[in-house]
Design brief:
The complex is a heterodimer of chains A (291) and B (340). Chain A has 291 residues and is mainly α. In chain A, 74% of the residues lie in helices and 0% in strands. The two termini of chain A are 17 Å apart. Chain B is an all-alpha fold. In chain B, 76% of the residues lie in helices and 0% in strands. In chain B, helix 5 packs antiparallel against helix 11, helix 5 packs parallel to helix 13 and helix 11 packs parallel to helix 12. The chains are: A mainly alpha (291), B mainly alpha (340).
């Protein structure tokens, strides 16, 4: 890849409009998450019981103190939205990295060694897939208990199979390549062959999958916090905001729209980034495969 | 005849592999839920129970035995159709699941139909506009749609059709005041059997939003796979051949393109429908639909272990059944696999 992009002002993948869109969205979210205390107009947990369920500022009865209105406890919706980005992005990054490491490890081991190792890993993945992901993550949360660390752990334990399934078939294709046999003939250790010869080949797919997984992780966290099985109530999370707004849907429908849009915005950012990466990184992969 | 034999063979093989999977899943479920910090014995007694009473209950429930023995007892009961008694609802788990499962199946099946219709139509449309400007737009739209999971679609549709326009009901399965016939437990089916048209149409209205939410959320991935398999199919010589024979484009698409492209789509559907079955959980909660999802979440909130185990296992069985059905369909539709 380095060879290919040498001497160019921008690597090929960065030129894609999709990748740029995705990166801009993620950058905006990251700024919200990192600088949340400075950006939020109010304390996200401060309850103003005198102004409950106020509409956004542009509607009748809106209060300039709360630009997007307040929830059923009189907490500022905008501030909770901004602070919610923290939970979402923390889960997105840590869970997808964790799931990637476990999934990629098993995928490479299964695809490279084949035989009974592949069979065992394949069966484990099959068992995992017989659980709908939502159900499995809920059950894991029951076992692990609530809290941010456990949410991340549950998502990793559920979603590593996504990586494993897809990457495994890629590894099987790559390990039949001549240069892999060459490396084995020279006497590279298995570990070295996998990390130096096969991993660079699976890397584009791996990065793409990771970007998509970040979107999935955000959705799963929102689902878990929606049913009250994620972070505690003292931490603002988008799913919780939805659950709260669902109770007052007639009085304050906007409270529901705001977190829905936030989740959609974030997931769209990661999806469009993933799609852009797939197009730019993977087409080269398929081209080399055909020649 | 031969086809039936092959399908029977596949069914036997799949059912045989499903058994160890279910055993392992049940062991997994059992272990995850036994490491919980809650004490099922203390929970099933009133809060003022003495330590001796709790101890007696523990012995009665077999909680002082080693874990593998507890699992053995649980499994043995499971084979006899006894998954235990709900601590919270004070009812047999089997009857609780029996009364909620039909509702969930009804929801899932109709949602699958919706997903199939949208997926096929969308995929054909995406393929039809290939190479035009509309393709780029549609492609972008399909990523937009992919970013909205069923969870958000449900809320979104609820807001639009339930709250803003107030055209469709969005809580439960039936409006109050409607008679509920009980034959099979499947409300739509029952009201049809008993000829109760008002109930049928009311129940159908309640199904529209949840099924649309689930179906629409699933369709973009089906569309995209169908589109790319159609593109693959059109690379093959038989399309050119059909064109040379002077067949109309429409006929080529339906008789040759679609016939071949439907297979990869179908195998994806197997996996996706499994996910959809899990997705009903969220949709049920949002629409207060009295299915297994609501039962499961109630159980989780009350740490009601027997229900969590029973419902978890039922979800697994459902996923396995769906994948076996889709695989058999695949076999019926794919002649390459039949002749061996």
């Amino acid at each position: 890849m380095l060879q290919y992009t040498k001497g160019r002002p921008l690597p090929l993948w960065l030129k894609s409009g999709r990748v740029q869109t995705g990166l801009v969205i993620i950058f905006i979210l990251a700024v919200c998450a990192i600088f949340a205390p400075y950006l939020a107009p109010n304390d996200p947990n401060e309850q103003n019981l005198l102004s409950i369920l106020t509409p956004p500022v542009w509607a009748d009865g809106g209060d300039a103190m709360f630009p997007l209105g307040t929830d059923s406890l009189g907490r500022c919706v905008l501030s909770r939205l901004i602070f919610g980005a923290r939970v979402a992005l923390t889960v997105a990054f840590t869970a997808s990295i964790g799931a990637m490491i476990i999934g990629a490890f098993f995928a490479h081991v299964a695809g490279y060694f084949g035989g009974w190792v592949d069979w065992v890993i394949g069966r484990i993945v099959e068992i995992w897939l017989s659980f709908p992901p939502v159900i499995l993550s809920l059950i894991l949360m029951v076992g692990l208990g609530t809290g941010l660390r456990n949410v991340v752990l549950a998502i990793i334990l559920v979603d590593w199979t996504r990586f494993c399934r897809v990457l495994r078939s890629e590894v099987i294709v790559l390990r039949r390549r001549d240069y892999v046999s060459a490396a084995q003939l020279i006497g590279f250790s298995h570990w070295r062959t996998i990390t130096r010869e096969i991993l660079p080949g699976t890397l584009p797919l791996l990065i793409t999958l990771m970007s998509l997984e970040m979107g999935v992780a955000i959705i799963v966290e929102a689902i878990l916090s929606f049913v009250g099985m994620s972070v505690g109530s003292e931490t603002a999370a988008w799913g919780q905001m939805i659950a709260d707004a669902r109770q007052n849907i007639y009085e304050a429908p906007f409270n529901l729209i705001a977190p829905i849009f936030a989740i959609f915005f974030a997931v769209f950012g990661f999806n469009i980034l993933g799609d852009g990466l797939r197009r730019t990184l993977d087409t080269r992969l398929t081209q080399t495969e055909r020649t | 005849m031969r086809m039936i034999a092959t399908i029977a063979k596949l069914l036997v093989k799949r059912v045989l592999t499903a058994i160890p999977i279910l055993l392992l899943v049940s062991a997994l479920l059992f272990c995850i839920l036994r490491i919980l910090p809650v004490d099922p014995a203390a929970m099933s007694l009133p809060p003022n129970a003495t330590v001796q009473e709790v101890e007696a209950m523990r012995t009665e429930m077999g909680l002082n035995l080693p874990l593998y023995q507890q699992y053995g007892i649980w499994l043995n009961k499971l084979f006899h159709g006894d998954i235990g008694r709900s601590i919270h609802f004070r009812q047999d788990v089997t009857s609780l699941i029996g009364s909620t499962l039909p509702a969930t199946i009804e929801l899932a099946v109709i949602a699958m139909m919706v997903a199939t219709v949208f997926g096929l139509a969308g995929g054909l449309f995406l393929f039809y506009v290939r190479g035009t400007r509309a393709e780029a737009v549609m492609d972008f739209v399909s990523i937009l749609l992919l970013s909205l999971p069923e969870f958000l679609w449900s809320l979104f549709l609820l807001l639009i059709f339930g709250v803003f326009f107030e055209v469709l009901p969005f809580t439960g399965r039936l409006s109050p005041g409607f008679e509920r016939p009980l034959v099979t437990g499947f409300l739509l089916l029952d009201s049809l059997i008993t000829g109760n048209i008002p109930t049928f149409s009311n129940a159908l209205q309640h199904m529209i939003l949840p099924c649309l939410a689930l179906g629409i959320a699933l369709s973009p991935s089906l569309m995209r796979v169908l589109r790319s398999s159609l593109l693959d199919a059109y690379q093959d010589d038989y399309i050119q051949q059909a064109r040379l024979r002077g067949l109309s484009e429409k006929r080529i698409l339906i008789c040759h393109g679609l016939k071949n492209a439907i297979l990869p789509t179908l195998s994806l559907m197997g996996v996706q429908f499994g996910f959809l079955f899990g997705g009903t959980l969220l949709v049920e909660i949002i629409y207060s639909y009295p299915g297994m999802g609501n039962l499961m979440v109630d159980a989780i909130r009350n740490a009601d272990l027997p229900i969590i185990q029973g419902a978890g296992l039922t979800y697994c069985v459902a996923v396995l059944v769906i994948s076996i059905v889709v695989d058999s369909l695949y076999l019926i539709l794919n002649p390459k696999l039949r002749v061996r």
